[in-house]
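Hi X.,

You mentioned you wanted examples for the new student's onboarding notes, showing what a folding record looks like when two proteins sit in one file. Here is a clean example. The first protein comes first, with its sequence line followed by its structure tokens.
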Amino acid sequence: MTRPITAGFDGTEESLAALGWAAREAVRRGLALRVVHAWRFQPLEAVEGADPDAQAKWAGEAVAQAARELAERHPGLDVTADAPEGGPVDALVAAAVDAEMLVLGSRGHAAVVGFLLGSVGQQVIVAAERPVVLVRAGDQPSAEVAGHEIVVGQQGEPEDSAAALRFAFETAAARGATVRVVRAWTLPPLFSYSPSSLKLLDDAGGLEPYEKKALASAVQPWRERFPDVQVVEHVEMGSAGQVLLSVAARAQLMVVGRRARRTAVGARIGSVAHGVLHHAACPVAVVPPAAG
């Protein structure tokens, strides 16, 4: 089944940047684009005709106009518009089910370049079954050029990052871009060493060679599947978030796996995704483990 790229729209500058990014990606991949605007009835006594039917019409006209402008900007792109009634989280999560990816806008915050991930964005990322891409206001096509890489984080066993690697390689293939696969490592506490782990490290020649071997093993299937994509394998000591952000300046897109967790105050994304989303200047894709 061919899935469209779906983008959320609410009329803000951030959502317009997300629509632009989604449209360009749809053109590159030869996919359709679906623009979604979720709305809820708001009783506005001071506004004549502010009834549910009138507000539904306003929402439909707004999203249809956005879709028409995208179609004019990208001749040949199949663009559809949808204005479901309901809360934004439920509507966007539902829209993501049949999408190749869901693209949303996200606000920069204060003097720190990056994203301000609100409760809606976080809830959507946690619940979505498909990759979610967050795009900042002001994102420009000029960043999507040769020399700017698709940066993706890899950790754990090969299967732990398979979905994120797939997304990164597919995106790089569509753009003719290089993939930089980043694996960060830290010194384990002394008590974590065991005879079996020490043997593995001895066989690999030490900690860093072991990490390089682990990364090469995770990347090899994707090298074979995408032979035309150039790959840089990047192993560096440090926390995963810090290492990823250290190479963010050369990225046109950063891809991280989702590590959602449940807490007493609700679901939360993992610390690596959280850090990258808040501080990377480029768009960020958060990929759930089952996406494929």
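Then the second protein repeats the pattern, sequence line and then tokens:
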Amino acid sequence: MTATARFRPSVTVAAVIAHEGRYLLVEEETPEGLRLNNPAGHLEQGESPLQAVVREALEETARAFTPEALLGVYLARFLRPERGEDVTYVRFAYRGHVGEPLPGRTLDTGIRRTLWLSLDEVRASRERHRSPLVLQCIEDHAAGRALPLESVQAHASLADPLRLA
């Protein structure tokens, strides 16, 4: 029997933020050019998805994000054959709100700008989305999808790996 490589999906988080009928997106530099995305990023060692989404939203929008509910957990696969990349993403998406931009705070490297788009504008810009999950998450938000924040549990061992209880 031959050993196969263990499947290791990439875990990400995303903030879906609406205000007065518009959704907050970021325009970011990617290998495919400028793309639109929800404020999003990778889960880091030692943090919960909830902590990660607050951090990522702040880094990418320069605004404090307050999660209100888990929107859902999403999976998508992304191929870049020319670079030999085949990645499956597991995305924890949260709905919530943000305040005004924080003075002195800059956008994360690679983020060109933030913009507020209506649902119709998000739908019309589909070809510029970083992934199909951008629109899917926003459509779920518009449909009122919301799960309790407690739907995702983070054990204390994330911060303290020697903790057994």
